[in-house]
Amino acid sequence: MELFVILVLVLFPPIVCKIPATNCPITDPLPILHKYYQPGDLITAGITSQIYIFTKAINFKERPSQKLFDDHILMSHNYQHILALVFAVKEINENTQILPNITVGFNIYNSHFSAQWTYLACLELFSGKRKLIPNYKCGFEFHPVAVIAGPNANICHHMATILCTYKFPQLTYGTAPVLDVKTQGVFFYQMFPKHAHYDKGILQLLLHFRWTWIGVIYLGERFVQNVLPVLSQSGICFGFIERFPDLTSSSFVPELVVKGIELYNVVMNSSPTALVVEGEIQSMMILRMFFNFAEFEGRPVKPKVWIMTAQMDFTSLPLQRDWSIDFLHGALSFAMHLSEPDGFQKFLQSRAPVPERGDGFVRIFWEQTFNCLFSTSEEDKSSGQLCTREEKLESVPASVFEMHMTGHSYGIYNAAYALAYALDSMYSLKIRHRTKLGRGRSMLLNQKPWQLHRFLRNISFNNSAGELVSFDEHGGLVAGFDIINWVTFPNLSFVRVKVGTLDPFLSPDKMFTIWDEDIVWPSNLKQVPPISRCNDHCYPGYRKAKKEGKPFCCYDCLPCQEGKISDQADRDDCFQCPEDHYPNQSHDLCILREIIFLSYDEPLGISLATISLLFSFITVLVLVIFVKHQDTPIVKANNRNLTYLLLISLFLSFLCVLLFIGPPEAVICLLRQTTFGFIFSVAVASVLAKTIVVVLAFMATKPASRMKKCVGTRLANSIVLSCALIQATICSVWVATFPPFPDLDMLSEEEKIVLGCNEGSPIMFYSVLGFMGFLGTVSFTVAFLARKLPETFNEAKFITFSMLLFCSVWLLFIPTYLSTRGKYVVAVEIFSILVSSSGLLSCIFFPKCYIILLRPELNHKKQLIRKKNLKVFGPM
User: Fold this and answer.
1) How far apart are the C-alpha atoms of 784 and 800, rounded to whole Å?
2) Across 212-221, 248-257, 536-545, least confident range
3) Residues 175 and 224 in one domain
4) Confidence band for 129, pLDDT divided at 50, 70 and 90
5) Same domain, 509 and 657
6) What is the mean pLDDT of the chain?
7) DSSP codes of every residue in 318-330
8) CB-based contacts of 801: which residues, under 8 Å, 6+ apart?
9) What are phi and psi of 148, to 5 degrees?
10) Which partner for 416 in 88, 201, 659, 802 could form a disulfide, CB atoms 3.0-4.6 Å apart?
């Protein structure tokens, strides 16, 4: 039985209209509605007014192929809604501070899940008590002031079609219908927090547990249109989206079974573990039906986490009392935050199945709750257990009847109080106004219902539980939600455990709170908290790649590209490390790159420095030998001064290698290439001058030769000075325009940063090398042409070999230099300097040292005389 409630205001003694029927007032015009049916038998009882429930003689147990909901079947959990209203009205009437001298009553109508019955009940509000004549009512014996409707949205929607025309106040304690805001919404007051609040809560809950692959079972199109797009935009996609079968008064069992099995197969054959269920109070009955039929047919049950919306509550039919509720174990749901009024449980415990004025439901409820009968006939005695009237409500499991107030009952309780306080405010104002005008109090009952809206909209009070009740500007209840964890027991009982809160009026980072450690998860789960994803996580080091034809949260995991990482799971793409970091082998972490340079702490640097110093020492030793034997013919031959200059240049060339080892600094970078280029140019220029002097000296020995004037120290010095000046000019321009500077090479090595000298201008660098190469080429050419001159101490042969080695080294240097990376670029240049310098030293000076030290007999003046007594050199 699905109910909506009409709250009626009664003033004792009742005032009845004495005017003839034809003159009785007519309400505002309403379009003529067709009367669809006649109500059946009417059960009546009274508390302060009358409770109506329409019934028909249909027995579900005897005729299972007929309607699922027999009119004689009273769902026990819905009976708590009635008792909550009775309890609230009882408190209001006993409270002398609210509506003094006025008694509040109510009528209850059954909607039968039908629009027709809902329309009929609405029309009766504007008709007399004896005849259904809309817009024609006489007297004050039935004076409704507001409607408390629910818990289904369709009931409220059908009701609004008629009642909003009369601007009738309507309070809904369940799902709010989708109404036109301007023409209908202004007359509605929601005793349930707004949908938008728990919509955010569902999103926060899914994101908290990282459930991105979910199933959805919905009842209303609003959920599909408003909520699912928001979930999708937040990275959540859906394994299935299915709709609950419609449950109406004309629903037949076979049809529900077929639809239910189809939906059950979709749910159990799907991969999502988390299932969001958007329904209403009757949806729980349908879920229980699905699992009962599946259990009966032996179908497998996969563990799922059910996430239920706030409008869903536990309710069941009497025939479902022995059905399992294990599927609810570990479920999560949202529930309106409530504080149970004092005395409510005591009020429930006081209920007894005795004929009581005003309660026509208690006997039916008692028989169905305790599975007993009150009849004393022999037939009834033999057919079942008789009720003893000693049964206790607290002894039945919660799946049959709950002793704690539910969210819907709390909404009804607050709605009754909201109306009472609004009426009290309105009548207090009216009484003061009437007193001034001197009119009677009897006119109070003639007030129009629409006059109550201004008082309802501004109502704010604390109920008996101490909770503040008020509406926002749109008629929605200002309240939050609790997050509930359902824990079931083998005796078919359950408890709702609060495991979190949702307060939409706090900041976004504080509105959602959940205590993971308090949650009891469904049995048989492999992992807790459970995982609900389309596929496994893409772990760090991998990136997501879309699967064609699949939802966006179904993807493949591909390793990160070379040089990129992903440091978090489920990255859409990998990213580059900062320049001073490099990815590790797993591509999930950036490691700080080591700064390196050719240093004295490593074997290569030590080796090169040692070789440099060794050749420097050898060069000094050769110079000492030549200075010691400076008066010998072999030293005096080929210009002694050029020999000393060449040895000093080679010595400095070996030492300038040390500028290339160690941490590059600004001064070091300026001196490194320019010093080497200048010193080496002087050395090569000295070799060139020695070669030219040899050639010119030979030419000067010819008779009548004018070359004698050119042979001498002045020419050699001019050659060396000119070459040195040119190279010095190039280096000066280089330093003045694009000077070398310390630089970090990020590209040469992936895991390290090379600290080196940036040459500033590659053109100037290669210009220095090019000029040295030019001098070397000229020296080689001249020496090669002079290699066969008939001279005992002719150096041309040795210069030829040295220049051949020099040119070969520096020709190979350029491609090697360009192809080398990191600190080894410096090593290549050092190696070229050492090889070319040592080549000059060994090819030119070692043969002479051999003669000076080991063959002194060859170092004699007579070796300077040719067989033809030709003198090669003049006095030195």
Assistant:
1) 5
2) 248-257
3) no
4) low
5) no
6) 79
7) GGGTTS--GGGTT
8) 843
9) -105, 115
10) 88
Give the residue-averaged pLDDT of 493-518. Answer: 90
Over 60: is that where the pLDDT of 439 sits?
A: no
H, E, C per residue of 478-520: CCCEEEEEEEECCCCCEEEEEEEEECCCCCCCCCEEECHHHCC
Q: Which residue(s) pair with 543 in the sheet?
A: 558
- Structural domain span for residue 835: 603-864
What CATH number does residue 671 fall under?
A: 1.20.1070.10
Residue 106 lies in a domain: yes
The segment with the largest mean pLDDT, out of 335-349, 370-384, 844-858, is: 335-349
Residues 562 and 651 in one domain: no
Same domain, 170 and 289: no
Beta carbons of 309 and 345 less than 8 angstroms apart: no
What is the count of structural domains for the chain? 4
CA terminus-to-terminus distance, the chain? 135
Percent of the chain with pLDDT strictly greater than 90 = 24
Query: What is the token pair recorded at 561?
Result: 């590209």
Query: Element (H or E) spanning 536, and its range?
Result: none
In this prediction, residue 256 has a pLDDT band, given cuts at 50, 70 and 90, of confident
Tokens 């020492």 found at? 617
- Quick: pLDDT tens for 618-647: 999 999 999 998 888 888 776 788 889 999
Return d(Cα 594, Cα 28) in angstroms, integer: 89
Asked if the structure places residue 157 within a domain, the reply is: yes
In which residue are the tokens 């991998």 written?
A: 542
Output the 3-class SS for 785-832: HCCCCCCCCCCHHHHHHHHHHHHHHHHHHHHHHHHCCCCHHHHHHHHH
Helices 407-437 + 76-94 axis angle, to 10: 30
Tell whether 176 and 323 lie within a shared domain. Answer: no
Half-sphere exposure of 430 (CA within 13 A, CB side): 20
Q: Are residues 117 and 127 in the same domain?
A: yes
pLDDT digits (tens, 9 = 90+) for 695-737: 776 665 555 455 555 555 778 888 889 999 999 999 999 999 9
Structure tokens at 679: 């010193």
> Residue 65: which CATH number?
3.40.50.2300
pLDDT digits (tens, 9 = 90+) for 272-311: 999 999 988 888 888 888 788 777 777 778 889 999 998 8
Structure tokens of 10? 């009664």
| Structural domain includes residue 834 | yes
Three-point CA angle 800, 805, 806, nearest 5°: 95
> Are 440 and 565 part of one and the same domain?
no
**All residues at 6 or more sequence positions from 374 whose CB lies less than 8 Å from its CB, including other chains:** 353, 363, 366, 367, 386, 387
Residue 112 lies in a domain: yes
Same domain, 249 and 139: no
316 neighbors 77 (Cβ within 8 angstroms): yes
